[in-house]
Write a structure and sequence with these properties.
Helices cover 24% and strands 20% of the residues. The chain has 7 helices and 15 strands. A 6-stranded mixed β-sheet has the order 5-15-11-6-10-9, with helices on one face. The longest helix has 25 residues.
């Protein structure tokens, strides 16, 4: 009998004794009796599972498994060219090392030494192999995506422990015309008015309330025991997933149950397509007009966000001066000499959450210092063995409490000129 089965049977005896005691008590409540009864049912279910796992195995008096003294060599796959054995992941390698260190070990052939040379070599430890170190990467080999690009560019305010919302006062200024600056302030030169005219500023309030982004993952206890890196892998996967969702919300969020994205904000400026512009294209005038509609103070912070589908269109953009044509789009590491490609000297960043070519939002010019985020201490991770106790599974839960929206409520009408300005500019649909 295995030690785990012995422990379960002992636990069952304790619960049976407790149940008997409760039944003998005159003041025992129905809830107490029901709770113990449920515990007994759960333990019995675990016992049946453990009996199945123990079938065909031998155990000593202490419940430790008695293994065949002959090492069990499991077939493994090899590279057909180098014949070098391959490890699937870090967890598989570390488990093989652990198994080889036990009494009567099960030795994975990938840990054995073969192909002896006649002289000093790396294969035989005493002939020099002990002196050769080996690299074992800690990195999980996977497709690499850039996620969480936008939150680091936003203005972020942490929320204190006793709060779940933020109210920020601001100036309600929608126009720079006389009498509208600061929401209503106006001054006069002497003799412009016979009497002084009273004016006052106008205020507005930005209100954010924490929304909840959640993730859940079930995992068997056997997997957690056999793949030692699995828990950290799951944590990394959800961190990247949350980063993806935040990028998407900052651009496309509807504001109900999630942050308000710039494409759904009333502060967004949308530049119209050119007359007779061909569908699913971007022309130089689109880029020039987008740049012209960006609020002047944002030009030092703004970035261009694009869907990768539109990049071929950007390479075709040229500015003609006389008989010469000059490229507008500067590739990264090329003429721009920067880690990002550039337009008008500002970085061009490819991001999955931008729309495809021709749709609203396929190219966005934005100053995300004008986007306000609040959060409550980053991603909270918790695990429990109780939720799926009968199924021998653990559950991992991830929660991120966050909200966000553009600081600007509307686009700004300049002092002179009719075209509104904003920190967020996009191009109209071209289908």
């Amino acid at each position: 009998m295995s030690k785990k089965l012995k422990d379960l049977l002992a636990e069952l005896d304790v619960k049976n004794t407790l149940a008997k005691t409760l039944l003998d008590k005159a003041d025992a409540t129905a809830d107490e009796i029901s709770a113990v009864s449920n515990d007994i049912k759960a333990i019995k279910a675990k016992i049946e599972v453990q009996k199945t796992l123990d079938e065909g195995k031998k155990f000593d008096d202490e419940g430790c498994e008695i293994l065949d003294k002959t090492p069990v060599i499991q077939p493994v796959y090899a590279d057909p060219n180098t014949h070098k054995k391959l490890w699937v992941n870090n967890g598989e390698f570390l488990k093989a090392v652990f198994d080889a260190s036990k009494p009567n070990p099960t030795i994975d052939p990938r840990l054995t030494i073969k192909n002896n040379a006649t002289g000093m070599n790396e294969q035989i430890p005493s002939d020099g192999g002990f002196l050769v170190g080996e690299d074992f990467t800690k990195e999980l080999l996977k497709k690499t995506y850039e996620t969480g690009i936008l939150p680091t560019r936003c203005r972020t305010i942490p929320i204190s422990a006793g709060s779940n919302a933020l109210s920020a006062n601001g100036i309600d200024e929608t126009s720079r015309a006389n009498g509208s600056r600061w929401g209503g302030i106006e001054s006069f030169w002497e003799n412009e008015a016979d009497a002084m005219t009273g004016k006052k500023p106008k205020f507005s309030k930005v209100e954010l309330k924490l929304k909840k982004l959640t993730g859940l993952c079930y995992m068997t206890d056997e997997l957690l025991q056999d793949a030692v890196a699995m828990e950290s892998i799951i944590g990394q996967a959800f961190a990247e997933e949350f980063g993806f969702k935040m990028d998407d919300a900052i651009l496309n969020g509807i504001g109900a149950g999630q942050p308000l994205g710039v494409l759904n904000s009333t502060s967004l400026v949308t530049v119209a397509k050119e007359n007779a512009q061909v569908a699913t294209t971007i022309v130089l005038q689109n880029i020039i007009k987008m740049w012209a509609r960006l609020w002047g103070r944002s030009k030092q912070n703004a970035v261009w966000l694009i869907n990768q589908d539109i990049e071929p269109q950007l390479y075709a953009l040229n500015l003609s001066i006389g008989n010469n044509a000059y490229p507008v789009y500067m590739p990264a590491g090329g003429v721009s000499g920067a880690p990002y490609a550039t337009l008008f000297g500002r970085p061009v960043i490819e991001i999955e959450q931008c729309s495809t070519l021709g749709a609203l939002g396929d190219i966005i010019l934005g100053d995300f210092s004008q986007y306000l985020l609040i959060d409550k201490g980053g991603i909270n991770q918790a695990s429990s063995v109780h939720v799926r106790f009968l199924y021998d599974e653990s559950v991992f839960r991830f929660i991120y409490r966050v909200d966000g929206q553009p600081i600007w409520k509307t686009a700004l009408t300049p002092y002179k000129g009719s075209n509104t300005l904003s920190p967020f500019v996009t191009l109209a649909e071209r289908k």
